[in-house]
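Standup notes, structure subgroup. Blocker cleared on the 4-methylpyridazine input:
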Amino acid sequence: LTFNEAPFAESYDVGEELGSGQFAVVYKVTSRKTGEKFAAKFIKKRRYATSRRGVPRAHIEREVEVLKAVGGHENVIQIIDVFETGNDVILVLELVSGGELFDHVCAREHLDEAEACAFIKQILNGIRHLHTNYVVHLDIKPENLMLRKKGETQLKLIDFGLSRHIYPGTPVKDMIGTPEFVAPEVVNYEPLSPATDMWALGVVTYILLSGVSPFLGRNRDETFCNITSVNYHFSPTYFGTTSQLAKDFIGRLFVKDSHSRATVDDCLNHPWVRGPRAGGPSDLRLNSTINVA
Ligand SMILES: Cc1ccnnc1
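Run returned:
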């Protein structure tokens, strides 16, 4: 796979840093031709096979292939162009400048059900687009969910650095992802699947509604033990006012057997998401009436 060899700097002016990870830094950039704003993700290339620094070219090519396959959905980041320099591969991506969903939740401590439900619906639509194209994200977490613009609520799934195509019948095993969000099959090094993303969505939903993380232990091993024993609960402190529907939605995702776990379509049809007036205040009145009675 060859990338654009034209010098990146001839096409774009580099602006402020937007974020950074282990082997990548993302900058806000401006097209010199059109003045349009984009995000440029500089991924450090691995120089030698034995090195632990940088990203192997095959992984970078996979991220580009996946982004090309699934970009273009309103809830998924769009790739615009790819450049290569001696040290980096540069992905030019659609700019999402509204900040991380994570920060939006922290600022509010937790969201009310209607707001959380509206976000979850968008994430489900993005995940449905991935899974329909046999792509699994494998790193769904609030930091990888960004608001397109400040003050707006449109969400985009970003960072496909761990994502890949998974076709039925070709088991993929890998110990990857962020401990707090990984499914039992990741901990047990069993085959990964679209269901692995659905478990992570359950963790995101739990956090949006409560501000706390369901399986987080005092260390990595304790977290993994909580996950493989599906050791979580809805503490009245944080879930006292949460509807039964919302708890049932989460409970359908925290299922150890990945084949029994709710799929993205099951979730989109779940009454908490689909409900007659899901996500509106009237919906909550309906539930509270039932609860009161
Ligand atoms: C961090 C980031 C990634 C992609 N687009 N905009 C911002």
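Discussed briefly. The radius of gyration is 20 Å.
Next: hand off to the docking folks.
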